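Weekly sync, protein design subgroup
Attendees: M.S., D.O., the rotation student, P.L. (late)

Item 1: inverse folding check
M.S. brought a backbone from last month's batch and wanted to see whether the design step gives back something sensible before we order anything. D.O. pointed out we never logged the input encoding, so this time it goes straight into the notes. Structure tokens as presented (198 positions):
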């Protein structure tokens, strides 16, 4: 069975003999619609932000620089943990930077090592959220809010927190934690337990 690339059918194929080439190879005859389609695709590839152009090269360099900013935050966070905590302390990265738990030698306080699963309404049960809050209450982790550099992550002080799970956790944290420092040139907030039995 012959596969028909770009919507070409058998009528759009000509024999290589007709083109003056020896052999029985069939060569696709490109129709006007296909040429028009290629012109449109190529034109939009240069206009499109993902297509090749000098402005897109600048965008790629900007993205690479933003990665460097994240790495700077991560280095500063690891320095902070080394100077202000012990390996026995727990760390909750409010975001998706769980690599810092590993790199810093600090365990997450509970089942959710990052908050991304908690963002989807109904994804976690009320009992799972309660167990996670209990883990935070018992283990009293250092919390680092990375929301300022991650558009997906709501602030730890959010009012409209995108899910009831996040709202419940944020309510507990706001009642029992306070901001004590900043890392990443003041971009990531460091919170410490200040609730009862402290």
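Designed sequence read out in the meeting:
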């Amino acid at each position: 069975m012959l596969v028909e690339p770009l919507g070409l059918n058998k009528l759009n194929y000509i024999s290589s003999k007709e083109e003056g080439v020896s052999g029985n190879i069939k060569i696709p005859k490109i129709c006007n619609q296909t040429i028009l389609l290629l012109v449109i695709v190529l034109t939009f590839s240069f206009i499109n932000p993902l297509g090749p152009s000098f402005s897109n090269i600048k965008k790629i360099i900007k993205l690479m620089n933003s990665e460097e900013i994240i790495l700077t935050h991560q280095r500063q966070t690891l320095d902070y943990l080394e100077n202000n905590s012990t390996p026995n302390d727990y760390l909750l990265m409010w975001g998706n930077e769980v690599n810092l738990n590993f790199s810093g030698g600090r365990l997450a306080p509970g089942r959710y090592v990052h908050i991304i699963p908690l963002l989807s309404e109904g994804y976690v049960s009320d009992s799972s959220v309660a167990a996670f809050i209990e883990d935070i209450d018992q283990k009293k982790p250092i919390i680092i809010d990375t929301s300022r550099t991650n558009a997906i992550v709501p602030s730890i002080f959010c009012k409209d927190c995108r899910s009831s799970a996040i709202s419940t956790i944020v309510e507990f944290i706001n009642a029992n934690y306070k901001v004590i420092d900043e890392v990443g040139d003041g971009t990531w907030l460091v919170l410490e337990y200040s609730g009862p039995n402290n």
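Discussion: Residues 20 and 62 are 52 Å apart (CA to CA). The chain is about 40% helix and 15% strand.
Action: P.L. to compare against the previous round before Friday.
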